[in-house]
Each structure stands twice: as C-alpha cells, then as structure tokens.
Amino acid sequence: MKVLQNRLYRSKWKFVLCIITILLVPGQIAIASNLSEDKNINVNTNWTNNPVVEEFYVAVEEMPASSDVINFNLTSMKCPNLLSYDLTTDSRLESLNFSINNECQIPATSFEYTTSMYTGNDNISRISWLGQPYYVIDHNNKSMNITGFLVDEGEDDTRLLREKETLALPEGFAITVSDIFIDDGDNVEIILTQYGEEKDKQIVNESEWYEYRSNMNRSDQTDNLILRFSVETLFCGWTYNFVKINSLRLISSDVLRINNEDILRFSLEDSRISWYEQPYCVIDDNTTHLTIARLLVDKDTYHTYRLKKGDILMLPDGYAITILDIDPYIPLDKYRENDFGYGQFLFSLTRYGKEIDKKVVREIDSYEYTVDLNGNGQNDNQVLRFNIGEIFSGRRFEWVEINSIGLISSDVFRIENSDEINIILEGYKTNIENNGTTVTVVRDDLTKNINLAKDGSTTFMDNWFTVKVNSASDAVIISDTYEHPIFILQTADTYISSAEIKPTTYELVGALEYIFSGYADVKLTSKDNPAVLYYDLENAQGHETLNLSINNNYDPPYIDDPYRIPADSFVYSTRIYPTRDHNYLKIAWLGEPYMVIDHNSSTVVINKFLIDERSDDCYQLSIDNPLDLPYGFNLTASINDSNIACFSLIKDGLEVYNTTARAGDIFQYKEDLNSNGINDNLILSFTVESANKPIGSVMINSLWMISPESLMINDGDVDMLATYKINIKNAGSTIEVRIKENYYEYIHNDIILKEDKLTGILNNTFFIRVNGAVEVVKLLNTTDTQQYEHELIKRRVNSDKIKMPDIMKNDTNRTDEITPDKTTPDVPVPGFGLFMCIMILLFVRKKIRNN
After folding, report:
1. Among 476, 705, 729, 741, which residue's CB has the most CB atoms within a 10 Å radius?
2. Mean of the pLDDT values across residues 184-189?
C-alpha cells in the first residue's frame, strides 16, 4: 500500500492511459517581504500553481478478431509527440515497431527502434534519440557521440539585454554583457561563465556571431560549438545601452556515446517520471525497484524572483530562503576596479525554522543543497538548487534575482516491479549502419519475449514510452512518458523577466498532414489520433471524428491569407455508446468524456466525467481529514459505536446529504439533472471498504463523480459554438457540427489560416497551424489544469514509503509553527497603488488643516 499526495482529477485521465507528460507551471512558492525600511511585514500567500502533469495519448490499437497479434508501426508523422519531427527541415527519420501477441507479450524479434542523422537549416548535424533532438559531435561505423540541445532558438527568437546584465542559461552557463561600445566600433564585450567560473571573453561586432567552442570528443582540439548567438542590433538608451541577440543555441556538456553492437542499459537516476499523474524525480534505480521523490518545484530561467534584504522566499516542505545581506559593488572585471558590474549576497536556508545552510554567492553562481536520500551515507542527492541572476543597486535598497529553482521532497518512495508495473531498462542492443549515420536498437536476446503487465503499465527505454493493456476490452495504449514541451507559443500569458517576456503556453502536436499541390485532406478519428480526439480505453470505444480540407488553390490567389478551410469540408461528429456493463451511456464531446443524461431527436443532455476510479484507488477519511471534491463538494466521515460509517456531504459550506453505511455498502448521491422532479441522476458514488473505530477513519474506494452542471445540446443550435451549427441525427444518438453558412452577410465563411500562426477551431478547443516553409499542417489540442487535492492510497503496486531521518522534524526546540501539509492564508500585498492612495490622503488632510 502506498500513499501519494496531491491527487489530480481530470475527466480524461481515468479513462485513458498516460501519454505525453508535461509540467505546466510546476512549483509552489510564496514570498514574505519587508515592505518598508523601518518595519518588516511578512506576507504569506497560498502555494498555488501546484505541479501538474498533463497526459496525452500517442497510439491505440484493438485486438482484431481474426488475429492473435497487434502490430504497432509508429512514425514521426503518426506520433509527432512520441517521435521527433523537425518541421524546419522535413526530417522524420525516427520509427518504432513492435507487436503484441495474445499472451500479452512483445515478441523479441518484433522490437526495433531506428533513427538516422540529418542536417539542419543551420548546417549542423543532428539526430533524434528517443524522441528528442540531439547534436552529433562525431560519428563513424563504430560509434556516435551526441549531446542534447539545452537551448535551440531561431532568428525570430530575440532577447534584449542591457549593459552589465547577466542572462542565466541551463547547466550553470551565464552570458554577461560587460560593455557596449556604440559609435566606437559598434561592438559588445561578452563574458561567458559556467558555475561562476569565467570560460570565455570576446568582443563581437554588430551583425556578427558569438561562438564558444570546446573539446568534447577527445580530439585535443576545441572544435565543438557549445554556444552561439547572433548580435543583431546595438541600442543607445537614456540610462543603459542595449544589445539585441537572436538564434541562441546551447548544447549540453554531457556526451552520450553510442557504440556499435553494444548492450544498452538505461538508468533513470536523476530523471523525471510521471507516477500516478504526478511528477517525481528518480533518486536511484535497479532491475527490481525505483526510489523516487516528489518534484515540488521546477522553474526555468524565465521564472525570476526579486528579493530585497530581509525578504524570505518560502518554498514547499518547510524550506525558506532569507536574504541577509547584499553587496552589489563587486567589480565585474578584476582588471577594471571602477567597473561595478555584479555583486554578491549572503543568504540563509532554513527548514521548519531551523537554519541548515548559510552561504555567500556571486551573481553568476549556482547554488545546490544536497542530503542523503538513498541511505548510502553520503550527502549526494540534490534537494534544492537555484541560479543567481542579477544583483541591483537602487536609490533606497538593493535587490537580487534568483531563477531556475528546483526542489524535491525529502520523503522518498520505493516502487517495486510487480504485475501492475514493469520497467524494462535492460536487454537492448545497438547497431550502427549506413556509414555511421543510422542507429538501430533491437532486443539483445531474441528468444526472450517481453512480458507486459496485464491491466498495468510497462515502461521502456529510459522511461521513454509506456504500454498498457486493458484485458477486458482487448485494447492497448502506447504512451509517451517524457516531460517536455513541444513548441513555444506567443501568447498573452507570460512571465516577465529582466531579459525578455517569455510565453508559458505549450503546443501539443496531435497530428500532422502534408499539403500536396496546394491541397490536403485531414481525417482524424479517436482511434487513429488519440492525442486530439478522445478514446475510451476501458470500453474500447472511440467515436469522435474530425474531417476538413486545407486549400490554397484559389484564382485569383489570396496573397495575404493563402490557406483556407473550405466551409463545406468541415465536419465534426461524435456518437453515443454504452459502457461495457451497459449501465450508462457515454459520449465524447470535443475531446472529453461525458455521461449522457437524456437524449432524443432534438436535445442531448450530457454531464462531464470528473472522477472514475477503480477498487484499488482508496481514500482514508475522517472528521479531521475530509475529501475535497470538484464543484465545492466536501466529504467527511465518522464512525459510531457499531462500526458504522456516518457520511456528510457538504457543498459550498452547506450539508446537502448524509447517510450511514457499513463496509461493502455503496454510497450514492443523486440529483435531478433531467428536470423530471426526481433526484434519480447519480452524481457521486463510492464503495465503503472499511470503518476503523479505534483510529476513527473510514476507507473508501471506486470513487466516481460527474459534474452537477449539465450541458444541453439542441438540434439546430447556432450559438453554443460561434460560427458553427449543431445538428442532432440518428434519433439523438449522433451529434454533428458544421460551419454555419454565410454567418455574416457578404462575407465568405471559409476558415482563414494564417501561415505559421495558430488558428482556433470549435471555440478554440483545437488549433491548426500551417508551416509555410515545408507546407505541413499541425493539429493541436489544449488542456485545462483544474485540480483537487487529497491523499490517495494506491494498492496497484508493491510499494513502500520510506521516511528518511529528519533532524528538523525531531527537534523539540523548534520555534516555528509551519506544517508541511497546510498552507498559509492568502493575504494581498500592498503595492504602489496603495502607497499613492495613502500619500494623496495625507496631502488632502494637510491642506484641510492649513485652511
């Protein structure tokens, strides 16, 4: 039995299996600040923006009646989220093939992964490896050395840096703009450091490239391009001079060497995995188990926090960073003593109020705090890390910037390999072919098949992808278990740093289609495109379709908007289907699962699925430990002297239902959703597993919930989806959506697609982008991140929770009252507007007195 925290409910997730995992806004942070010079006011805010793992399908297949084998032939075009696809060069050279037989095995002879080198538009040799782009350092028939791209931006990705500013980059790299010389050569002096150590210093002219090379292939020559960017423009400002750079590219200093006919053994240590829809960091691994810790905060260089002397940055798990002193007057260049470019500051790291570290760090340093999490007697497990950005000197006070905060929990879990989860890290063999340009990975022992976990998950190759078999429905899902963004969008939702405004929205490419001779037909189904449309794994049902055409063959041509979706080609369709036990009717609507409440030829009433769990998903409840549910519901439980559980269901602070139940009983809460005057529509249900009077807790499982808010879809509706018309067909069993005809008079109703820009369809549920360079269409899905928290007890795997020694929690002299399981109240921080209001009131008061 295993306890997991921060269970996240989302209607799609319990019906589908994991897929691409992305960390959206992962982190829980609060800032306590001294708001005046003579009085410190500590302001605590709720830890919002909990780490969230978004999950998406990659591929699904059903066992055919006439065959005992399911074949998966995955390519970059079919699975652009799993296999890398470079749109700029039309490179789609990755493939993954395997079969699944009727014994729930992958025959060893069927497994083959292939990838090949290609040349990018920047004339750099590249290769995709396990779905990620890599830089090829060198290659031959015997080996290939590759490394990952840390930053890989194009000409349109620009950054504006002022004089003396430092731009923090991954792996401890930092670019400092030392001097900008305008009208005196029009150039800029760049200093490159890594973890505070100077690596390079160059003067670069405007419109030229900065390049830093190093030796990465043991050739005794510094011929490997590590970092490069273009100095686009220099600006002369009132206070500072600025430089605009673009095309920033940085590769990792960690080199992966692939040898011919070598046996691969993957390691998950220090990597991230999705475990029951939550992000974790792997502490160590072997063939029998994984040791993991919850990932609490994972910020990048664009998430910057400015702190003054006395400010406290409060983090999850009781950690806090306090700024003790700031000294901004440290020379940037030791040879120019009068040039004050960066400084240093002293901070204290505490946990639950007790100081555990104190250190002075410089502007270009990185900080790490390590402890012993795996019990090896060495403090070699990184728990907290962050980079130091700029240090500023103002008229009234100084402040510092820190970014790239990473924090994991000190509580670790050990996950044992079992029938419910199987991690295949060994038994892979490499072959290098085609003059060292192609790498193929097969199974080492072709006589030993891979046993898949029935109704569980089997993970392959560095946690790259997962296979789940649903034995009841004879359906198989392939999921991508990496946590990475695919593309970065330009949106209004941004984080602002001193360097630039960086968007936080990610594209999830669900399907690709080429445009041939100016025309393309796009035909999507739930089964073929589960990353876009909904597929019900538990019931082996998928009935959403989306058909449209892309056309730019117009006479005369549309110069500004060459690509269009003809209105008569657009059809979205979905239909009702029964669950496997025939107890309910379900339907997928715009990529999400819904319960059908009522339907006829004119109206379909549906309610969204929120939770649908199995008997091995358990919750422990009590009076002091309620279960928070969606839509303001809250469930508490107590036990009477007869060991009978007493349940109270609260909604928005008011009790709406109460009942008693024994172990084995089923709790059901119903409402009137179809307006027949009877509360006969099930909203919430679960099974009472046990009631323990001595400890005062109740265990429940099989939690099931739909939204109490109904969505009524009417035949002929033209208002629900703007510019679209809804038609109900087949006696209310099918819903069809088409573009309205001439929704504005004298305006053509085709959908206009802006080249290389997003176009939303069906009320921005899905997005389409035409890449003009290679004429390829991308269809993308969007997600919501609504979440609800409680401890979930999982019994699917043989798993132990290991509590490591914690001297802070055992300290009887602790003075703080902060607990890791509670958040502090949300109190607004007075800002500049409040300050101005007070000043105006004081001024008016003084004028009145004078009069």
Report:
1. 705
2. 87
